[in-house]
Specification:
- The structure is a single chain.
- Helix 1 runs antiparallel to helix 2 and helix 20 packs antiparallel against helix 24.
- By secondary structure, this protein is an alpha+beta fold.
- The strands form six sheets. Strands 16, 19, 20, 21, 23, 24, 25, 26 and 27 form a nine-stranded mixed beta sheet that branches. The chain has an eight-stranded mixed beta sheet with strand order 4-3-5-6-7-8-9-10, sandwiched between helices.
């Protein structure tokens, strides 16, 4: 009997009845664990017997099919091409069944044989409770039934009115779940996903949540289809529809709710106070911005330290952008001195940088920064959080290192720098004594010390308890709280030696921060000879001035291109004066071309779109210069030879740009920064043409640049061809390499994304 011809609903009912009659007869319900299934979970004789009974039934009653079961390998039967697959969990909640608890079931979802495993492709579903005679069956578009009763989920829309269930085994309750539990009317746990979802479909409870990332499709697919037919809603923990699965042991999160409104409230509740340690999301960042920074503000007409401008961005925005680059989007700002002005400034930053900011005022901020940190306690709750200072310049990579550290329960992590010689203002820095990986002592006056405190912490709420303890003793600094925790071995050191950071609390430190940022503006090894020794020193000074204006990197890219076009136009003339001016303009364009990337890195405005624009306009500029020089030469040297040579030079310029990018795509790593790589770069060929124009021989200079480009391309090809394969899989033309070659507006620096 074909599944197409059969009454699917009655067939699934018989499947439930016969399967468990056979399974109960063949195996002891309370049998011990005898093996493991494909997920690695314990497997009892009853599970195996139930799986075998399901297989026998399907082979007997259907012509052909594919069975994907939790308890056995994929099994195909029949002599004809199967039209459907059966996703089977023979015993969902077998531990419950073995202990005599009511919540366990057989789950079967019927899908087309081809295509992904997906909820929206389920055509029929069975969920049968082992302790009840009548199973629940759902047929797509025909509702969900238990016998003659039509199932209907509740109409509950508000979390405060909802009875919910939540799976917790192998998983510690987290702050987001705690927030959810606190708001719900009642919380239960049944230990069987299919039965919990079935209770939602019946209207007995209002939602079931499983955010452990352990749930697999065979456990919930049939029940989720039943719930949809009963009017309910099924989403993942991010609030998205469940995606496709290629196999049944793929992990998922699940929110099964009676209504869409309730599902959305649950998603929103889970998003609140989400900490990186629990759900692999970056935590919130607490920024201490309460102090008046007297040593700096006296030099800045009393302006609050967070708003002080450093190369086109305030200290506050530099701290925010470093955290955003590391994935953090939620910020809690502790205010004090000139709170209204500082808050308004952070609100503008949040709008520009697409992040959220919340504010809390530390009433007694003058007592010490420990008081400021404590003011954020209610906003943070019990979730882990990053703690930084508004006046510390820190690299995004430093933040990423701290976020990836092992945060122990009831403790904190402190980022430390062991390179003493690289620390600015040793007398003022907070010093740290280490024993193994633990901080044992902290203070500014320590004579013997191992590392410097960078002012970046990853914390649990234990920090707040420690600060409260020391405040009773009349001590109010953050360091006092850290010392209190260190006495109990609860402060771990995170080594960030080599990362860029500086505490900007004096005019001298502000100047040092400026120097370090400007020094970081190289392209990470992607500069050519000319850029290193000529262009970059000039462009860096120009960028320092441009950073204080509103000009954008893309505008600079266009300006550089226009200068190059004007220069090309002059080079197309046959007069030396035009060549002289044109050559100088081409070199100026080369210098300005470095400013777009520098401004992008200075002001954290790097973007793939900007890098793409820069690359395209550079190639247009190269071709324009090559054709202009060729045109001028051909005007006094008729014949095809000048044009052929000019076109070959232009092709060399294009290939020189293309060859290393293609290398990175195909080999999964950037091409080495060797001589071949450097002689093909744009800075050298434009300087050659510029010098050639000044000397009265632009065409000869063009030829030299073209020859060097072709030599470089051929040399790189030969060197790559001889390279021993490393086993990496070549990337296709449509794939995106994680090692994209560095270009002007996407180049990284220690102080920018």
């Amino acid at each position: 009997m074909s599944i197409i011809q059969a009454d699917l609903s009655s067939t699934l009912v018989r499947l439930h009845q016969e399967t468990f009659r056979a399974a109960i007869t063949e195996a002891d319900v309370a049998s011990p664990v005898v093996g493991t299934n494909r997920k690695g979970d314990g497997q009892r004789a009853f599970d195996i017997a139930a799986d075998l009974a399901v297989r026998r039934f399907l082979e007997r009653d259907f012509i052909s099919g594919i069975i994907l079961s939790e308890e056995s390998d994929t099994f195909s039967f029949g002599q004809v091409e199967p039209a459907y697959r059966f996703i089977v969990d023979p015993v969902d909640g077998s531990d419950n069944w073995a202990r005599g608890l009511a919540y366990s079931s057989l789950s079967v979802a019927v899908l087309p044989a081809q295509g992904p495993i997906a909820l929206d492709r389920v055509v029929g579903a069975l969920v049968g409770n082992l302790t009840e005679g009548a199973p629940v069956v759902a047929i797509r578009g025909e509702g969900a039934h238990c016998g003659t009763d039509l199932l209907q989920a509740s109409a509950t829309r508000k979390l405060e009115d909802a009875f919910i269930s939540c799976e917790l085994n192998h998983f510690s309750p987290t702050p987001p779940l705690g927030n959810l539990f606190a708001r719900a009317r009642a919380v239960r746990s049944y230990g069987c996903a299919s039965q919990a979802i079935l209770l939602v479909a019946r209207g007995s409870i209002d939602a079931h949540i499983d955010v452990r990332s352990r749930l697999t499709p065979e456990s919930f697919l049939a029940a989720a289809a039943v719930l949809q037919e009963a009017g309910g809603c099924v989403l993942d923990a991010e609030g998205k529809p469940l995606g496709d699965f290629s196999r049944i042991n793929e992990k998922a999160t699940l929110i099964a709710a009676a209504t869409k409104e309730l599902a959305r409230e649950i998603v929103d509740a889970l998003a609140e106070n989400r900490g990186g340690t629990y759900l692999d999301d970056p935590p919130a960042a607490v920024i201490l911005a309460a102090g008046n920074g007297s040593r700096l503000t006296s030099e800045q007409n009393g302006a609050p330290k967070p708003v002080l401008n450093l190369l086109g961005m305030s200290l506050a925005e530099r701290a925010i952008t470093s955290c955003v680059a590391a994935g953090i989007r939620r910020f809690i700002i502790v205010l004090g001195y000139r709170a209204d002005q500082v808050q308004a400034h952070y609100e503008k930053i949040a709008a520009r940088r697409n992040c959220s900011v919340e504010f809390v005022t530390a009433q007694d901020w003058k007592l010490g920064n420990g008081v400021s940190a404590l003011a954020a306690a209610d906003k943070v709750g019990r979730a882990p959080f990053l703690l930084i200072m508004s006046d510390h310049l820190i690299a995004p990579s430093l933040v990423e290192t701290v976020l990836g550290s092992d945060l122990r329960e009831r403790g904190i992590c402190l980022a430390v720098d062991r390179h003493k010689d690289g620390v600015f203002d040793l007398e003022d820095v907070t010093k740290v004594v280490l024993k193994d990986n633990l901080v044992t002592r902290v203070g500014k006056d320590l004579e013997e010390w191992d590392a410097a405190d960078t002012g970046v912490f990853l914390c649990t709420d234990a920090l707040f308890g420690a600060i409260k303890t020391v405040m009773v003793r009349g001590r109010y600094s953050l360091s006092d709280g850290v010392i209190e925790l260190a006495a109990d071995d609860r402060v771990s050191a995170v080594d960030v030696t080599g990362e860029v950071w500086i505490d900007v609390d004096t005019p001298e430190a502000l100047q040092e921060a400026r120097r370090r940022i400007l020094a970081s503006l190289t392209k990470g090894g992607a500069d050519g000879f000319v850029s290193t020794w000529l262009n970059r020193p000039v462009s860096r000074r120009l960028s320092e001035k441009l950073a204080m204006t509103a000009i954008t990197p893309n505008q600079i890219t266009v300006i550089s291109f226009l200068i190059c076009l004007i220069g090309a136009g002059l080079l197309s003339a046959s007069q030396y004066t035009a060549w002289l001016i044109g050559g100088l303009l081409v070199q100026l364009a080369s210098i300005v071309d470095g400013c777009d990337g520098e401004i992008a890195r200075l002001k954290h405005l790097s973007s793939p779109r900007g890098a793409w624009l820069d690359t395209i306009l550079d190639r247009y500029g190269d071709v324009a210069v090559a054709l202009a020089v060729t045109y001028a030469y051909a005007a006094v040297h008729p014949g095809p030879a000048p044009w052929i040579a000019g076109f070959l030079a232009a092709f060399g310029f294009i290939l020189a740009s293309y060859v290393t990018k293609e290398y990175a795509i195909r080999h999964g790593q950037p091409y080495p920064d060797d001589v071949l790589n450097r002689i093909k770069r744009r800075d050298l060929r434009l300087l050659l043409i510029s010098v050639g124009a000044v000397a009265g021989h632009p065409f000869e200079a063009l030829m030299l640049g073209g020859i060097l480009s072709h030599i470089s391309v051929i040399g790189i090809l030969i060197k790559t061809w001889r390279k021993k394969p490393d086993g990496r899989r070549p990337r296709g033309e449509d794939s995106i390499s994680p090692l994209v070659p560095i270009v002007s507006q996407t180049s990284t620096s220690p102080l920018g994304p």
